[in-house]
Q: What sequence folds into this?
């Protein structure tokens, strides 16, 4: 039953008033979220530009390893020249229009990411990065960034990151000296509420970010005035969203999206009024899209950032009401965003149509904080896990009688270096074993054996990792079912007896088949992740030349394997993409 809006608001205000009078928030009821939520994508007008669906999944991923890769990427793009006025600042992008931009929010974001890692691992190897970043943020404080009277969304946005960075830094180090910075940031947000209107929807998203951040900081620093300001800004945002929830919860703009508003509501108003929030979320969370396709927005086509924000909102719903459906939707989005990192350098693109040489430090920070940090949780001390078979997935098709080189990818998913991890692969009753040393945040690719499927049908390959004092046995086993198909039957005519074939000449793939058919080409990187694919129709007996640069324009420079399947036969060709 849907509660009439005026009655719902009365109940909300009564709940907030009770919290103020008692000094505590009402407790959430002891019953599970009722009913599964059916995810659906709101209708969007994309006629003004091209669209691109969620990228091909490169997973599964080791969340801690991906977080560590982002930490390294950020260190690479921090200004390290003590003589520079920008010393310690975070460069926004590897290249492109933002390649020379250095600003405070990017730098505060990196402080949060490095500090969270410090708290998990007690590793001090990014402490110098953190201290240099504080030098920059003191020189260019959040509350003095770009902005003016009536147009200070960016200062407010920076101050919210200031609160988050100070809190994470103190939690990681015990150093309370950044509290003065936090007080100035919090006071700025509390005393500079943004005007909300349809004509300035960006303010609504920034209000969500600020209201939620101010609420969290109020609990940290015991500031009743901040908590009241957070609630008031959250209520204003709730009024704004309720004018058209289907529009605003699926809205994309600048570096944010409707997920930012949803997160802010969960962290401010709904934290103090959980019963009202539970009903509201049940009524509206399905309006959050599962993925926002790229579309042309004047100035900022930042679909990578929009989708981080949608995942953040869905994670907030899962936190608020214990909803596993929202958590899974968010997890899938995080995997899609990590799949934009096709050069595996830890950097994530803001715009999925940009090349992978224009990764953005700030989107990488967003993904680390709003996605990966939640999935990492509190990492175990010792944990090894199998990730994948190199180039093969569950239900992959192989050819009976054709030999395969079996390689596996394993990961260190804990915070300690692992000197000895036994890796076992069982296939057709044969056990193959290798030993790997996995440092913190590392992956290792091990070539296990050659294997030829002698019979058609299903073959189960079982991959295990064995490590002393492993704390997460549930992730030590990976089973992959492969389907072996019989090779094609030779035909009567000599021409038809010739097998299809493929070869590489430079960057051109040459294909020929005696019979008309289709070639399916998959591109796999050296981590065993599928990073591209295409199909070509093959006329009978005619040579097809396929320039791979034209067919795979977004493929980053590096070494790959091409798996070419034609007429039931498959072959693997090494391929190097040149700059």
A:
């Amino acid at each position: 039953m849907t509660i009439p809006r005026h009655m719902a608001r009365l109940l909300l205000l009564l709940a907030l008033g009770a919290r103020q009078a008692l000094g505590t928030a009402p407790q959430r009821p002891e019953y599970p979220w009722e009913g599964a939520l059916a995810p659906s994508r709101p209708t969007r007008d994309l006629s003004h530009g091209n669209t691109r669906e969620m990228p091909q999944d490169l997973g599964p991923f080791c969340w801690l390893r991906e977080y560590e890769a982002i930490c390294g990427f950020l260190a690479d793009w921090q200004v390290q020249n003590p003589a520079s006025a920008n010393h310690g600042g975070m460069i926004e992008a590897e290249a492109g229009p933002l390649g020379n931009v250095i600003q405070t929010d990017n730098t505060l974001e990196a402080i949060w990411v490095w500090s969270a890692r410090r708290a998990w691992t007690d590793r001090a190897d990014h402490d110098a990065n953190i201290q240099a970043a504080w030098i920059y943020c003191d020189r260019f404080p959040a509350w003095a960034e770009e902005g003016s009277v009536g147009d200070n969304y960016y200062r407010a946005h920076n101050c919210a990151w200031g609160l988050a960075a100070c809190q994470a830094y103190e939690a990681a180090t015990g150093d309370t000296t950044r509290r003065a910075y936090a007080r100035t940031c919090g006071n700025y947000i509390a005393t500079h509420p943004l005007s909300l209107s349809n004509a300035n929807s960006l303010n609504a998203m920034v209000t969500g970010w600020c209201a939620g951040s101010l609420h969290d900081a109020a609990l940290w620093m015991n500031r009743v005035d901040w908590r009241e300001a957070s609630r008031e800004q959250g209520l204003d945002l709730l009024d704004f969203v309720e004018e058209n929830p289907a529009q605003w919860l699926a809205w994309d703009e600048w570096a944010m999206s409707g997920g930012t508003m949803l997160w802010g509501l969960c962290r401010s108003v709904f934290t103090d009024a959980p019963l009202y929030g539970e009903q509201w979320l049940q009524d509206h969370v399905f309006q959050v899209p599962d993925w926002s396709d790229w579309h042309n927005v004047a100035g900022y086509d930042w679909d990578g950032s929009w989708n981080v924000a949608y995942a953040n909102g869905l994670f907030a719903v899962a936190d608020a009401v214990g909803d596993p459906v929202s958590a899974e939707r968010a997890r899938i989005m995080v995997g899609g965003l990590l799949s934009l990192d096709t050069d595996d350098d830890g950097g994530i693109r803001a715009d999925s149509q940009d090349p992978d040489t224009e990764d953005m430090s700030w989107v990488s920070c967003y993904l680390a904080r709003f996605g990966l940090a939640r999935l990492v949780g509190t990492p175990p001390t010792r944990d090894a896990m199998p990730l994948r078979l190199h180039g093969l997935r569950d239900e992959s098709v192989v050819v009976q009688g054709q030999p395969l080189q079996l390689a596996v990818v394993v990961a260190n998913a804990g915070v300690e270096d692992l000197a000895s991890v036994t890796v076992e692969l069982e296939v057709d009753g044969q056990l193959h074993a290798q030993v790997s040393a996995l440092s913190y945040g590392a992956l290792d690719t091990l070539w296990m054996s050659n294997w030829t499927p002698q019979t058609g049908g299903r073959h189960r390959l079982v991959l295990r990792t064995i490590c002393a004092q492993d704390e997460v046995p549930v992730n030590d086993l990976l089973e992959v079912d492969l389907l072996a198909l019989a090779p094609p039957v030779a035909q009567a005519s000599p021409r038809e007896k010739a097998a299809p074939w493929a070869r590489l000449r430079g960057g051109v793939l040459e294909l020929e088949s005696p019979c008309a058919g289709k070639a399916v080409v998959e591109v796999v990187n050296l981590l065993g992740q599928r990073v591209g694919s295409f199909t070509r129709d093959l006329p009978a007996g005619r040579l097809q030349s396929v320039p791979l640069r034209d067919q795979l324009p977004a493929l980053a420079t590096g070494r790959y394997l091409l798996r070419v399947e034609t007429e039931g036969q498959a072959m693997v060709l090494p391929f190097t993409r040149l700059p």
